[in-house]
Specification:
Two copies of one chain form a homodimer. With 375 residues, chain A is an alpha/beta fold. Chain A has a five-stranded parallel β-sheet with strand order 8-9-10-11-12. In chain A, strands 2-3-1-4 form a four-stranded antiparallel β-sheet. In chain A, strands 7-6-5-13 form a four-stranded parallel β-sheet. In chain A, α6 runs parallel beside α7 and α11 packs parallel to α12. The longest helix of chain A has 19 residues. Chains A and B meet through α2, α3, α8 and α10 of A and α2, α3, α8 and α10 of B.
Chain lengths: 375, 375
């Protein structure tokens, strides 16, 4: 029988680490004391086992636990349950990495388009991409559509809804998506450059499906979804049911304290089907370190069995002036997302957005830049 | 226009707290700088506002933020987005309380049965209730059914699946649920005492719906669901579509680091429809304090508009010997859940379970016990 490996960072006194590691293995498999188990099959094939304990520093240990893949039933929700169900409730345990054997990985088609598919869609084979957002919510639909038009005239590749824009009275979903999509298509025809509108899909599963249908009917190709908000299994279902969309994943509600961000946003979002992942860039409104942000980008682009590489989308309080620095850090295989810093230009929005696009598209990568990742 | 109030605990230098509180209000509403906003309507009716900052201790502040209810669209997923979307990604911010105005609260039917409905179902008007779990996963169906039978013969009120039991090859869902339900019904007829089997529903939304249908056809009355695992909005949908079930909520995957456990398990699970909530008891396998565990129970039972009180179910490494102490702490309006500590009795499982049931049902509450909560 096959086993997956989950890696945890455990804080513990040295004399207790072995006991804690074994307790975690029980918690994540049979959830009962060993002495309660009379079945040899369960002892041999179901009980998870500690596969290695490595001291990282004072009172910090990396613990590898082998979990029987049979316990996941090959299902996405149950996989989460087995790798980080009850032990998410344990203090001093952090879930930091995941390694799936080939047969289990094969149950996850991952991104249906991935980085390569997005490049093909926007017709940009090598350059970094640009994205921006219509905001703030509360604006009338005509105003949101006007923002879409301006952004596309300035040359951005993808215009997404702000993630707070849902189905509110002041901009109902169906009407808004129709108007914004029309504005983007029209402006894209004028410029002759492909550009895409990504509406935000948020809601309970039934509402999501209905909104996805509306988007499909309108010819939408890219959608924005926050997987932790709608629930990772619901995200998996949505991608499965509407594989024609490029999924741009948003980190909202994703601040689970005890999962490494590179694992959650880099690996798990990708595994569940995100083609591109928006994440917090260092030095913006959020306290992410440069290392943390770059690790997410790396995880998204890394070779991983049959799972297509996804496109990193650093965001969160970024300035147009930082474009050169960010591109040198992330390399060409990234999409920079700047929203608020464009909008403060107000009546000069078109010019400011053009400046953003020009800086990104004309950037000359220095020799010390990150190497282009696997495509 | 109405406003809801979300309360956050922010760690900050004193000179920065006002700035950080205002930044949080922007993040949770318009997500852009104020100077980017030209619309008076947005400034007046959409931008969230800080409603109070209270120093709690050194560098710790309780911050109340008023958020326009219109931004939630009256939808469960979007409510989560507005109250704890992006700011879940902020370090040093903890989401600690939520107050919904009446019109928004009315969009949430909450528990369809609640504590009173469960008492009616099991025919116990005042006494504390008992629950246990079939485990470990990996046992054949016949063995799980035999455990069900033994537990019911011993008099427990509810026998649930272990939360790790899903739809695995060694105990496929449909077959297992049929056998366990039959065993519980049969044993309950023999004893003459009502008892209920609660299968675990885990999966992506489409799988969940299918499994709920199977459970309904088998006459199942109580189900086990981990709302954070399947996603809170998917949980909301499930309760809405299958209101006849009593929902026993499990905390798996619920270790979000930055939400108070009493808010998440006590208020949000209840708001989304949990009739009873399993949570970590103090002094077991998890490092919850007594105060934390009791706060969850209090939040579940507190008066809250039209939202029915839910039943607290402390669990997690509890011993039969602790029953008197726990009942004195939680009071009679609780269901004690003990699994592993019964199962280690192996061939004496019936007797050990009887001891558990007897201790619970014959407990005489001391005068200093917690007062019976609102029913």
């Amino acid at each position: 029988m096959a086993w997956l490996t989950a890696r945890y960072l455990i804080e513990s006194e040295p004399e207790l680490i072995e006991k804690r590691a074994n307790a975690l293995a029980l918690e994540q498999s049979v959830e009962c004391p060993l002495e309660a188990i009379g079945s040899q099959f369960v002892l041999d094939e179901i009980v998870a086992r500690v596969d290695g304990i490595k001291e990282l520093g004072e009172r910090r240990y990396l613990v590898d636990v082998k979990i029987a893949t049979a316990t996941t039933g090959g299902e996405p929700a149950q996989l989460l349950n087995m790798i980080f169900g009850n032990c998410s409730l344990w203090e001093n345990v952090r879930f930091v990495d995941l390694d799936l054997p080939r047969d289990l990985l094969a149950r996850f088609p991952g991104p249906r388009h991935g980085m390569a598919g997005i490049r093909e869609l926007v017709g940009a084979r090598e350059r970094p991409l640009t994205a921006t957002a219509t905001k703030p919510q509360g604006l009338p639909i005509s105003e949101l559509a006007r923002l879409c038009r301006t952004f596309v005239l300035a040359g951005v590749d993808i215009v997404k809804d702000d993630h707070g824009i849902a189905d509110q009275s002041y901009s109902p979903y169906a009407e808004r998506v129709k108007a914004c999509q029309a504005a983007v298509v029209e402006a894209s025809v004028e410029t002759g450059k492909p550009a895409f509108y990504a509406p935000n899909l948020v809601g309970s599963p039934r509402a999501l499906r209905e909104r996805a249908r509306i988007a499909r009917e309108l010819g939408i190709r890219v959608v924005l979804v926050a997987p932790m908000l709608i629930g990772l299994p619901a995200f998996f279902d949505l991608v499965d049911e509407f594989p024609e969309f490029v999924y741009l994943a948003h980190p909202s509600f994703g601040g689970a304290g005890r999962i490494d961000t590179s694992l959650l946003f880099g690996k798990i979002f990708r595994l569940f089907g995100a083609d591109a992942v928006i994440f917090v860039n260092y030095g913006g409104r959020f306290a992410y370190s440069q290392e943390e942000s770059l690790s997410i980008a790396e995880a998204l682009r890394a070779l991983w069995g049959q799972v297509r590489p996804a496109l990193p989308v650093p965001a969160g309080g970024m300035l147009v002036e930082r474009v050169p620095e960010l591109l040198d850090r992330y390399g060409p295989d990234a999409m920079l997302l700047i929203g608020g810093n464009l909008l403060i230009a107000r009546e000069h929005l078109l010019e400011r957005t053009r400046e953003f696009v020009t800086r990104v598209e004309s950037h000359r990568f220095s020799k010390t830049a990150a190497p282009a990742a696997a495509r």
